[in-house]
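Deviations from the work plan: none for this task. Representative record:
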Amino acid sequence: MMELTRKGEYAVRGIVYLATQPEDKVCLLSDIAAAVDVPATFLAKIFQQFSKIGLVKSYRGTGGGFVLGRAADRITLLEVVEAVEGPIIPNRCVVAPGECPRDVFCNVHPVWKRVQVQVRDVLEKVTLRDLAGL
Amino acid sequence: MMELTRKGEYAVRGIVYLATQPEDKVCLLSDIAAAVDVPATFLAKIFQQFSKIGLVKSYRGTGGGFVLGRAADRITLLEVVEAVEGPIIPNRCVVAPGECPRDVFCNVHPVWKRVQVQVRDVLEKVTLRDLAGL
DNA sequence: TCCTAAAAGGATAATAATAGTCCTTTTAGC
DNA sequence: GCTAAAAGGACTATTATTATCCTTTTAGGA
Ligand code: SF4
Ligand code: SF4
């Protein structure tokens, strides 16, 4: 239960690797993929998602590649994970009131909410700089 | 991400309902299923899992049904969830050292461990008695 | 002992999600 | 115009989820 998918795992690996590189260095997707041992075509999709929301900046054509969209200490693990896995939702009822008709009287509901807060809290306190370990 | 499956949700609903009943009352699966709005055939499978590990006691034949295997305040939400969803594993590397060859130098690894601890902690502190709301 | 109630177990099936691959298109540098 | 590299789209294989249905076992009661 609550397992990160490969996609999520690959996403973290890839962007953490970027964070270990000099911040002005434009990295090739193929290099990143090789370095973190992820299928390049799959990682491409992931970085496209990152790019759309500005987590990374991409340059096309010769000399192109990727750099972080912000300083490594201003990107949290939570952002990275949510970018590819979607929001942290331990149970559908936490997403919005009314999702489950039982939520008005349900005592379990607040527990899932608590789980959500705790997980988000852990992930939010970790930045790419922490993970790069420099 | 981290979403409980229907099975898990149904499992919680079903056993919480049992906890709201008088503790010596043998409840029919069909009644439980109707009360918590879950397909009876599906809930049957879930309660079979509960039964195997003693979370509920089952009686077959006429007058049969289910009762809690222990007092409601001695069954935690964690146990219930893990019974049907398996252990709380935010990422494969937390299950055992060596699962991922990178874990020796990986800074992300301990974060997932922390997530695991936090989630387990929240769920462990809640018992069926709390959830039954009596 | 036979009938009926009820859970246990097993097989199967439809749908959705995951984990990719491959090909074409766009963009940019030389 | 050639080449490098990311972006986008279509497609596929595998696995997990969400069930349903049928048969078997167990037990109670007439
Ligand atoms: S935990 Fe309660 S509110 Fe949430 S989905 Fe389950 S029954 Fe509904
Ligand atoms: S978080 Fe680190 S140790 Fe865990 S699977 Fe990913 S790379 Fe491996």
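Chain B touches chain A at residues 1-5, 8-9, 12-13, 16, 77, 81-82, 85-92, 102, 107-108, 111-112, 114-115, 118-119, 121-123, 126, 130-133 (CB under 8 Å).
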